[in-house]
Structures are given as C-alpha cells and as structure tokens.
Amino acid sequence: MKKLLLGAVIFLFLLGCKDTPSEPTQSVSLYETQLFKDVQLSSIFEDSKTFVDLVPKRDVSLIEAEYLEQKDKEGFSLNDFVLENFEDKSMRGLQFELDTTQNMYEHISHMWDKLKREPDSVFAHASRIALPYDYIVPGGRFQEIYYWDSYFTMEGLLVDGQDEVAESMVANFAFLIDSLGFIPNGTRDYYNTRSQPPYFALMVDAIARKDEKVLVKYLPQIEKEYNYWMEGAKDLGELQPAKRVVNLSDGNTLNRYWDSGNTPRPESYKEDYLLAQNLPNDSLKQLLYKNLRSAAASGWDFSSRWFGEERGLASTETISILPVDLNCLLYFMEETLAKAHSLAGNMDQSNDYKGLAAQRKKAIQTYFWNENAGYYQDFNFEKGRMTLEPTLAGATPLFFGLASEEQAENVKDVIMSVFLKDGGLVTTLDHSGQQWDAPNGWAPLQWLAVNGLLNYGYTAEAKEIMTRWLTLNEKVYANTGKMMEKYNVEDLTLLSGGGEYPTQDGFGWTNGVALGFKQLLERLKQPD
User: Fold this and answer.
1) In a domain, 8, yes or no
2) Across the 528 residues of the chain, what is the mean pLDDT of every consecutive 10-residue run?
3) Are residues 52 and 138 in the same domain?
4) Opening angle at CA 53, ends 65 and 149, nearest 5
5) How many angstroms separate the CA atoms of 66 and 64, rounded?
6) pLDDT for residue 382
7) Contact present, 392 and 446 (Cβ < 8 Å)
8) Strand partners, 391
C-alpha cells in the first residue's frame, strides 16, 4: 500500500512538471488541424491509429503553422514532414519466437511480462494518458490500457498468481476515476469523449475475494463512476434521453452507450469520414459519427447489433438502443454499492442502492426478456420495441443471476442450439462482415455465457463450450504460436476476419479467459 501511495505522489509531481517554462503552451488540438485531416485521408499510414499515437516533437500549433506554410510548395512530402515532426514512443508489436517446448498455457504465463507496462513516462503533447502503476496491455496495435478488456485479463492474472499486477490495474482505474471523473475507453486523449462497458465494480469484486474490505477502499470510486453513468437522470422528463441515461414512460431509468463527440473518431478518421460522405447534410453526418462513436463505447465496434432496419454500418443507431448487458452491469454496480456501504456501516445508503438494484432488476425483465424467443434482447426505446436479432449479449443476465430458473433454461437452449458452433459461441447470427458478428467468437462473451450457465447448474453445457473454445485456441496456437483477439468459431480452418484493422495477437483477454477456463475445467473434474 505504501508503495502504491508513494508511486502516486511521485507520478502526480511529474505530471505537474511535464512542461518546462521555455515550452509554449499547446494552443490547438492535433485533431482540429488541417495537418491531421490531410494525414488521415492520405493513407500514408495503413492504420488510422498510427498517426494519433505518434508524439509531436514540439507544440502542435507551431507544427500546423509550418505545415500550412509549406504544404503547397513544389516538392513538399507529407510523409517526410510527419517523420520530421513526430516520433514513435510506443512499443508496437510483440517480438518473440515460438518456443515449441511450451504448451499454450505456459506460453500465456510467459506472455504477461511482454504485455506488462511499467508506470508511464510523461511526454509533452502525447496522446497517451499516463498511468502511475504497472498494467497489462491487450497486445498488437493496442499499446495502452483498455477498460473492459482489463477485467477478463485480470481474471487470468489472478489464476496465474499475478495478484500484484491485478491490484495495480485496479489502482490505475481508480486513478482515472479520481482524475478524469470516469474511465475512458482507453488511455489515450482521443478516447476522452466516452467510456466502455463499466467493469470496474467487477474488477474490485475480483480482488476482494481475499478480503471484502477492498470494497470499502474503492467505494468512493465505484460511486463516482456510477454517478457518471447516471448523470442527468433526475433532471429528465419521460422518454427524454440525456447522455448515458433514458427515462422511460413507466418511471424506469435505463442506460445506453453514448459518446459526447459528433465528428469522425480520430483513431478511425478516414473510415468514419468516408462512410458519411453519401449522407445529404451535416446534421445526418454528425448523427452517424455520434452513433459510430457510441458503438465504440460498447466495445462491440462494429456489429449488426447496432444496425437499423436499412442494415449496414451507415445505418448504425446505437444511441437509440438500450443494451441488455450494459444494464446488467449497472445492476451489479448498484448491488456492489449496497454491499460496500453496508460494510462501511452506511445503512441508509446501502438500502437506497438495494432499492435501485431491485427496480432495475424488474426493468430488465420488462424491457429485455423476449417471451416468444425465450431469450434476452436489446430494446430500441425510439421505436418502442426489441431489436430484430438476438446476440450473445442475451446471456449476460445469467452471469449476474437475474434470470428465473425457467428463463435460464430457455436461454441455455438458445445458446446451445443457435449460438454454439464447432469452436465455441458465435457473437451474432449475422454474417455482416463486421468483426463483432458471425463467424467470429470473442473470449469475453465465452466467459460471460459459461459462467452464466454454471450459475444455474448447467455444468455439461458449460464444459462443452469451454472445451470447444480451448481446443480452437490450442489449434491456432499450435499453427501460429499466437493468441488472437478473436477466432472464427464456424470454420476452424480459417482465422477470424472483419473490422477496421487486421486480427491482432497478444492477447490480454484471450489469455485471461483461457487460464480461467482451464482452472474451471479442473475444478469441475473434482468430486463434490
């Protein structure tokens, strides 16, 4: 504890001293410059994320002024200008050789050191949000910490006895809540307009398994994050959405994903900009940008889950949708706050949160349970009906124990008959070409579904899913020496595809879930 406190004091001192008196104060954001737009649309970098992760060598306003003065001159090279004025301080790409003496699980344990980053150096004008403690990055192009990834990564760290790193990651997220008021999508300034699925309470709960007093320690941060997600709820009238909350006509308040920006995402500028060019006016373009950004806030970027009736990425309508999994996470946050306040002796506050959790539990059954399908689905509050297609997010209520026994049996039947494929669970049933759709399966959704089934006693089904998923993981590892961010669970001869970037290797949450499943299978073999 003393080590963590001392690290924070030193880090905050360095943060306050990052600019020397001789440096001009940065007066313009890189993302607002003509240089930024020209670079991102020029495709001098294959990946739009590359440029925003580079560090300007001096004040951006000076670079922009020089660019505007030089760009139309004969012989000017945009590529050379960028190389002269920006530098790469990241640790992109994992360089390692396949060790054929290691099995996949030994490889994962070996990978933690390669994915671990020490407290960040503070670079002037950099996009990175510096963190004061050690952390694990996902891998590949993702060389910063990501919010919801980290919970699933942590579960593997705890299995592997890496408790100190797991606790440091929670401390980093608490630092972000204290300093920014919320946890951004990732630790880059271009993510500051949105969060991601709120797993902080689950992270705290994970490290509290050894000592539940940890819940009291992080009570202020859990409550502050809850207030961020519920901001504006008390000021709304019926059916008036504001930021992340929507008040409904029956008096219930539920949550949605929402990003405060309405411009192309800096890290995917070209993709967003070109997608919107066919729209007839700026208002519709800005609405599409907000919906794309809000889909990124969900972590499911991108998926037919967010498509409108026209289908296709340009029809994305994320801010009109109340997601079942998000509202389950808010339920767990309310339950955790009730427990933490009780442990702290604050019984009035504890009872208040118990009441909020009970009300949300009823609302989840009202708005997300599809009786005809026997499954949970998202709800489009603008259209007043459930969304058209089921997704694997519908398994989340089982993870949090929100389903009745009958509902759980129905969900189990849908999972096993519709979503289960040769390599595990497919994310959706739509082959849209987006990476969060068929034929892809993702580790975090396997984790939620498997543990949800186990909560209701469906051991054989859970074992079947885990076995198929791990068999696929092991096969890809044997062929490539890598752990992937996602897998093709329908055709085991192919790797996954779709999305704005190539499949990444590393990979934090896949590693965590693989270790967690291995431990679960070992426990299930033991006699009661």
Assistant:
1) no
2) 47 42 57 98 93 96 97 97 93 58 92 91 88 91 92 98 98 98 97 98 97 97 98 76 93 96 97 96 98 98 96 97 98 98 98 98 98 98 95 98 98 98 98 97 98 98 98 94 94 80 78 98 87
3) no
4) 150
5) 5
6) 95
7) no
8) 428
On whether both 402 and 514 belong to a single domain, the answer is yes
Active site residues: 301, 485
| Paired tokens of 506 | 């590393």
Please count the structural domains in the chain.
4
pTM of the model: 0.93
Q: Which stretches of 57-145 are assigned E, i.e. beta strand? A: 86-87, 116-117, 135-136
Q: In this structure, are 58 and 114 located in the same domain? A: no
pLDDT at 282: 98
Question: Are both 183 and 279 inside the same structural domain?
Answer: no
Please spell the DSSP secondary structure of 201-226, one letter per residue: HHHHHHHTTS-TTHHHHTHHHHHHHH
List of residues 6+ apart from 121 with CB closer than 8 A: 89, 130
Q: Which domain holds residue 60?
A: 28-88
What does 88-123 look like in DSSP terms, one character per residue? Answer: --S--S------TTS-HHHHHHHHHHHHEEPSPP--
| Domain match, 77 and 148 both | no
Residue 139, pLDDT score: 81
| Cα–Cα distance for residue pair 186/198, rounded to 1 Å | 12
For residue 91, what pLDDT is reported?
57
Quick one: CA dihedral 105, 111, 113, 116, positive or negative? negative
Say whether both 302 and 192 belong to one domain.
no
* pLDDT score at 13: 41
Confirm whether 4 is domain-assigned.
no
Domain assignment present for 47: yes
Q: Residue 101 burial (CB < 10 Å; 0-12/13-18/19+)? A: exposed
Q: What are phi and psi of 484, to 5 degrees?
A: -105, 160
Do 402 and 515 belong together in one domain?
A: yes
Instruction: Count Cβ atoms below 10 Å from residue 384 Cβ, excluding itself.
Output: 10
Same domain as 516, residue 407: yes
Task: Specify if 187 maps to a domain.
Answer: yes
Last residue of a domain, one of 229, 255, 289: 229
